[in-house]
Fold this protein.
Amino acid sequence: MTQTQPDIPLPMADLPRKAEKMDLPMIDPLDLDRAHTVADMIDEVYARSGYNARRLAEAAKLYRRMIEEGATICMTLAGAMTPIGMSGIVTALIKAGFIDCIISTGANLYHDLHRPFLRPMMQGHFMVDDNDLAEKGVARIYDVFIEDEDTLLATDRIILQTVRRIEHDRPMSTAEFHYQLGRQVQKSAPKPEWSLLATAAGFEVPVYTSSPGDSSIAMNLAVPHLYDQPIQLDPLKDVVETAAIVRAADTNGVVIVGGGSPKNFYMQTQPTLHQIFMDESRGGHDYFIQLGVDTPQWGGLSGATPSEARSWGKVKDAHINNVVVYSCASLTLPLLAQYVLTRCAPRSQKRLMGKMDDLMADFHKAAEHNEKFQASLRLARKHYL
């Protein structure tokens, strides 16, 4: 029988020290004693860890850099964020001056209108009989219950009453419509501070929707449209206004919550400038943060990476100042927001709604003086228009 030799520990000097050779931080056992606040948890635990914990820490630090360097920051909202109360997170960031522009699904803005008028949304459960809920007049968004009569139909009546007080003698961008809607909520709602639309209007933060026909707000606007009193929304004004906002900024950053159409609508501002108007002033967004669960291999825009966006000229670099956190935004958005609200001093709001006429005039003037664009326009008119 062969006699086995006892294991002899190697001297420490003989052990490989890859961290030293590669000049990289060591990952030590995480110490929760160093984390007494959410911001501490991100800095002292998540940032010292790996996987999506470290991506969240990187996103938090990148958001902080965006704020401290004065970037014009857009937040895009997809999914059903306001039904679970995320409007409170967004309003806190608006008040601190950490959001300058919003692009949202119409559904998020419709559900934002329930709470300021004290219309209930409740914690339910996802393991239920939806036939039973339907018979009881309850609609479900996963584990959120919304009553038909007391919430949905009541909100529909509020929208119809409110839009009657809105000036609509000319076509409006969706930002202008939401600004007027938010101002009416400020005047008439018992709890206007519970509405991101009302808060955004108070700080002149433009709120766009990339698909104005795809929500219960639009469903209600169909009523005056049918009776020859239409609210005329012009989605092409949205395209030009958002491009004008991006062009005027020294640096641009985005926090993408989910993905979807709002993500693409913001990202397309850069190709609008350089591809359509041949304006070379920007060269892609400077900062990119996305909080979502969609992955790139399905070919959907929600999962498209910032690296892919670089190939379209939507971001400045394929790797630098870009972070994707693959996790549910219901977890990551409050953590990200609390980090910057703790670590960053409030900054003055940019109040872009009040500057929109000047932004549009500057954009138009730049296009008029862009010889390359004007030559292309003359060619198009000659051969195609």
